[in-house]
Specification:
The chain is 27% helix and 21% strand. It has helices spanning 34-42, 63-70, 156-171, 202-208, 217-224, 235-244, 249-254, 277-282, 297-304, 318-330, 356-361, 374-377, 394-397, 415-427, 440-443, and strands at residues 2-8, 13-20, 23-27, 46-51, 73-76, 87-88, 94-97, 100-106, 115-120, 126-132, 135-136, 139-140, 179-182, 200-201, 270-273, 289-290, 311-315, 337-342, 367-370, 387-388, 407-410, 433-435. β15 (270-273), α8 and β16 (289-290) form a beta-alpha-beta unit. The protein is globular, with a radius of gyration of 23 Å.
């Protein structure tokens, strides 16, 4: 038996292949299925099945494309209400992969339709558990993403109660030596306390996971529904995409319109400029948002841009443009790209330079906006008189920022502030808008979230 983990650091997403006797099953696949095809060829096996532990909110899955390409059966809980060809996989159901068994365990909590998959080896021993978004290393799945979306909706308190019973009545009673394979690692917004480790055991989680410690149901519900991270705007849309199945990855990105960099852009469309902030500062288009390509680019794009919003996409070169389009497709936003292009030559707007010494000496002469997440600012402010507006909320709350003195934006390390400065600078022209950038780390020891 071979179990292999594929890991996407940008979305902190783990997917899996399990191989036995010439046959392979994929669990919670990413948008691009090529990794799984290549792995199957490497091991000279056939892909015969795809299991979805639930309709994911944070990425688009390739389960339907893999089925259409290979004929693999898609297995999913009957509670999903799947709009694609599938076989139901719930409590008591078994998939035979050679001489091993994959058993379904219904574990509602993160979502009403969540399942875990127990692997039983050829000798009848419980060996591994694919836990989806139910159990992470050091955490459990957040319960607040299915209040208004999906085949079955439920309030976060009800899902938290279900998580309490799923963990205690189904997972915590399993043998301690079972290896736990979760679908997310650190940096994922599907949990609030996920460990850097990408696998664990039931025994370790019983000892170290805060959510599996001795507590009554009321305390568990309160703990699980408190201090969860923000929810990106794209999450509800991806649940629906995954419930019905996504279009082919490569066909989708090939449909993205590419235009010459001297083509006129239509007015009233958002512009996403993915170049490095120094290049953006030296010259950019009016109203452009500087969302630099980086490790979590796709998450921030889906946090800032509304699911119904179409946008132009700018990159420095063709390789960078290919990269960001593929990242955008991972969250299902490629269909919202109005057109993609390389840096236009007429980018005449420049960002103002900040007098850092004056700011350090007289911070009271500036309006300071802290665009970190709520969980970060609650741990303490760098500047006591700063306005706190998290980046995902900024476009809707710009009218809260006064324009009676120069504005300085900061986050924890400079990535979010670069985006925020471009957003605010496009709307406020009466005073200069400055980016404190990495200099904030000289002033305060900050911890960045996502």
């Amino acid at each position: 038996m071979i179990i292999h983990q594929f890991y996407d650091t940008g979305l902190a997403h783990a997917s899996y292949a399990i191989i036995r006797m010439g046959r392979m099953i994929v669990i919670d696949p990413a948008r691009d299925p090529q990794h799984y095809y290549d792995f199957a060829v490497l091991h000279e096996v056939d892909i015969v099945g795809v299991i979805e532990t639930h309709p994911h909110a944070d990425f688009v899955s390739s389960h339907l494309e893999i089925h259409q390409t290979t004929g693999a059966v898609i297995y999913v809980s009957k509670l999903t209400g799947a709009g694609y060809p599938h076989e139901t996989f719930d409590d008591g159901d078994i998939i035979r992969l050679g001489d091993i068994k994959l058993k379904a365990i219904n574990t509602p909590g993160h979502s009403p339709d969540s399942i875990c998959i127990l692997v039983v080896d050829e000798n009848g021993n419980d060996k591994a558990l694919f836990t989806g978004d139910t159990l992470f290393v050091g955490d459990v799945g957040r319960p607040d993403l299915r209040e208004n979306v999906g085949n079955i909706t439920a309030k976060k308190e009800e899902l938290a109660r279900q998580m309490y019973h799923s963990t205690r009545e189904k997972l915590m009673i399993l043998p301690h030596n079972i290896v736990v394979y979760p679908t997310h690692g650190p940096g994922s917004l599907c949990g609030k306390n996920i460990s850097p480790d990408l696998q664990s055991t039931i025994g370790r989680e019983l000892r170290e996971n805060y959510a599996l410690q001795l507590m009554d149901e009321l305390t568990f519900v309160k703990t699980l529904t408190t201090d969860q991270p923000f929810t990106p705007k794209y999450f509800p849309v991806d649940v629906e995409i995954n419930k019905n199945g996504a279009a082919s990855f490569h066909e989708s990105i090939e449909r993205v319109l590419r235009i010459n960099n001297d083509s006129p852009l239509e007015k009233n469309f958002t512009i996403i400029d993915t170049r490095h902030k120094q290049d953006f500062r030296a010259g950019h288009l009016k109203g452009a948002i500087n969302l630099q390509d980086g490790e979590h680019f796709e998450t921030w794009l889906g946090a800032i841009i509304n699911p119904s919003e179409h946008f132009y996409l700018i990159a420095a070169n063709n390789e960078d443009l290919d990269t960001v389009i593929e990242k955008i497709a991972k969250i299902g936003y490629e269909q919202h790209i109005k057109a993609a292009l390389l840096s236009p030559a007429n980018m005449s707007l420049k960002s103002p330079d900040m007098d850092l010494n004056d700011f350090k000496s007289h911070p009271e002469n500036y309006t300071i906006v802290d665009v970190r997440n709520h969980s970060e600012t609650e741990e303490g402010l760098v500047f006591s008189h700063a306005l706190t507006i998290p980046l995902p909320e900024l476009r809707e709350r710009i009218n809260e920022i006064p324009a009676d003195k120069p504005i300085v934006i900061h986050c924890a390390a400079g990535y979010r502030s670069a985006a925020a400065v471009s957003i605010i600078g496009a709307e406020i022209n009466a005073v200069p808008v400055y980016d404190l950038g990495e200099a904030v780390m000289e002033i305060g020891n900050l911890k960045s979230e996502v």
